């Protein structure tokens, strides 16, 4: 008999600038699980000048997605680390239907399953304004106005289709991301409470 491993397993999905990274930290704290951001993993590799970083710098700064095969391998490795065995929150992964398939395989191999997919929604004008503000504050390489707008298109074309997949599985918890950071956190907490998570 196989047993399902204990712990909470969540995803957070939404357009660039919807507040995924910001809210991921708070949700992860609530459950005592690691928040794993593929964007952060890629930026750390770029900053560290690793071979991987050199390969992906051009891709991410143009607002394109890193190839699925590479991203899937990195996430599978990360989810195999000790701190993720008892649950995790994935921020920014999966971002394509192929990545959904790869995550399904990783979960199936350990007998684990997702508990919910938090979908953060926000208007394009609002997310563009937020990312332009972040550009002024921190100067991330992919936060120029052209690239910000292009990343919204990439989201609509490549990532939005995964929402339908998770909706069909009854996993999507949709939260309006247009309020203040605290208001959005409270709305996420209430939505997860409602599902007894
Ligand atoms: P990410 O790091 O995921 O970047 P992002 O989509 O812009 O989201 P982020 O989490 O940083 O921003 P947030 O909305 O929290 O990805 C970067 C790149 O990496 C991608 O373009 C791609 O190239 C690559 N990549 C990542 N994952 C990949 C994958 N799975 N496959 C392939 N490629 C992948 O916040 C944005 C700003 O808004 C912040 O400044 C924040 O302070 C502010 N903010 C948040 N909530 C707010 C609120 N309620 N009110 C006002 N401001 C708010």
TrEMBL record:
Region of interest (NMP), ranges: 37-66
One of the protein's GO biological processes: AMP salvage
Binding residue positions for AMP: 38, 43, 64-66, 92-95, 99, 140, 151
Gene Ontology CC annotation, any one: cytoplasm
Tagged with keyword ATP-binding: yes
Chain's role: Catalyzes the reversible transfer of the terminal phosphate group between ATP and AMP. Plays an important role in cellular energy homeostasis and in adenine nucleotide metabolism.
Listed PANTHER family: NUCLEOTIDE KINASE
Protein name: Adenylate kinase
Protein's organism: Mycetocola reblochoni REB411
């Amino acid at each position: 008999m196989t047993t399902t491993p204990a712990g909470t397993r969540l995803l957070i999905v939404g357009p660039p600038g919807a507040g995924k990274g910001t809210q991921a930290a708070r949700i992860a704290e609530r459950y005592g699980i690691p928040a794993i951001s593929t964007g952060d993993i890629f930026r750390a590799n770029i900053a560290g000048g690793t071979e991987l970083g050199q390969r992906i710098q051009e891709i991410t700064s143009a607002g394109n997605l890193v190839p699925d095969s590479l991203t899937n391998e990195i996430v599978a490795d990360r989810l195999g680390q000790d701190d993720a065995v008892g649950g995790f929150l994935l921020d920014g992964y999966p971002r394509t239907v192929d990545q959904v398939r790869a995550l399904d395989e990783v979960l199936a191999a350990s007998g684990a399953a997702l508990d919910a997919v938090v979908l953060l929604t926000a208007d394009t004008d609002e997310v563009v304004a937020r990312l332009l503000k972040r550009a002024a504050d921190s100067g991330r390489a992919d936060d120029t106005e052209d690239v910000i707008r292009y990343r919204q298109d990439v989201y609509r074309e490549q990532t939005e289709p995964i929402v339908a997949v998770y909706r069909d599985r009854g996993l999507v918890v949709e939260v309006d991301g247009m309020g203040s950071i605290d208001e959005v956190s409270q709305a996420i907490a209430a939505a997860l409470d409602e599902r007894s998570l």
